[in-house]
């Protein structure tokens, strides 16, 4: 006699997740996904909790999204974790975020190592508390030989500062004769950004319903597909990432060409 089969709600959700995953074309995945993890505070407030509770729950989403990107074979994942503007938040929240950063890195580093994830940091590293710098440097070292997902944390990050810093570095090279003004082009400029070693993101996701970029990767997202979702970051899980990827794959990336040109030539940027 056959086993009675009960379709639980959890099983139902698993089925939906699997279905979406089946619809994703593994050959057309972005190499680099950038995310603005937003909405932690509102998520907590909606539950009558302190904003910091939302940040704690946001870490659960970070873990799940990092693992999912690893499973999918995504090359680069850049997460906006703290902007230079975020220093202007109440001290109690900033302190809690820095403490959460240290504790999370400390707790997760073995898992990152095991999962072949390599950690990178972009932003104004020196402005972070020393304990954060120490923990992050150690985690970077421990994961340095990993060859799977490159996890790039944007911390104390400002895209405008990154651009100004690049301009300064280039100006210094010109002043000392290392570079001629006529040799400055897109490639040279790109090599002076914090992200010099990473490809540009093809997909940029922002959670929480805000439709703005908030000083994030302004140069690098020139041709990224933008995906805005009302879901707050602590609720953004595997299934939501699959939905974003499916949406990305349904878009036609034209890069200035016409639709007809794209359809008759082999796509270069998929
Ligand atoms: C994103 O969530 C996390 C950080 C900016 C550190 P928020 O803290 O911005 O949450 P909301 O936007 O206030 O809801
Ligand atoms: C952007 O979120 C920065 C991070 C997600 C770390 P914010 O919540 O700080 O952005 P604004 O201030 O609403 O634009
Ligand atoms: Mg916010």
Please summarize what this structure is.
The protein is α/β, with parallel strands linked by helices and 270 residues long.
Describe the model.
With 270 residues, the chain is of the alpha/beta class. The protein has a domain at 29-158 and 199-249: 3-Layer(aba) Sandwich (Undecaprenyl pyrophosphate synthetase), CATH 3.40.1180.10. 45% of the residues lie in helices and 13% in strands. The protein has nine helices and six strands; from the N terminus they run αβααβαβαβααββαα. The protein has helices at 9-23, 40-46, 51-72, 91-114, 130-142, 159-175, 186-191, 238-249, 259-264, and strands at residues 32-36, 76-83, 118-122, 150-157, 203-206, 225-228. The chain has a six-stranded parallel β-sheet, sandwiched between helices. Helix 5 links the parallel strand 3 and strand 4 (150-157). Helix 1 (9-23) packs parallel to helix 8 (238-249) and helix 3 packs parallel to helix 4 (91-114). It is globular and about 70 Å long. The chain starts with 8 loop residues before the first helix and ends in a 6-residue tail after the last helix. Bound molecules: 3-methylbut-3-enyl trihydrogen diphosphate (2 copies) and magnesium ion. One 3-methylbut-3-enyl trihydrogen diphosphate binds at residues 36-38, 80-83, 85-86, 210, 212, 214.
Features:
single chain; 270 residues; Undecaprenyl pyrophosphate synthetase; binds 3-methylbut-3-enyl trihydrogen diphosphate; binds magnesium ion
- Tally of separate helices: 9
- The CATH architecture classification of the domain at 29-158 and 199-249 is 3-Layer(aba) Sandwich
How many angstroms separate the termini?
49 Å
Main beta sheet: 6 strands, parallel
| Mean of residue pLDDT values | 95
Helix content: 40-55%
What is the β-strand count? 6
Classified by CATH, the class of the domain at 29-158 and 199-249 is Alpha Beta
List the helices and strands in order.
HEHHEHEHEHHEEHH
Oligomer: single chain
Structural class by sheet pairing and helices: alpha/beta
Low-confidence stretches: none
CATH superfamily annotation of the domain at 29-158 and 199-249: Decaprenyl diphosphate synthase-like
Output the radius of gyration: 20 Å
- Give the distinct bound molecules: 3-methylbut-3-enyl trihydrogen diphosphate, magnesium ion
Instruction: List the strand order in the largest sheet.
Output: 3-4-2-1-5-6
Task: Quote the CATH topology of the domain at 29-158 and 199-249.
Answer: Undecaprenyl pyrophosphate synthetase
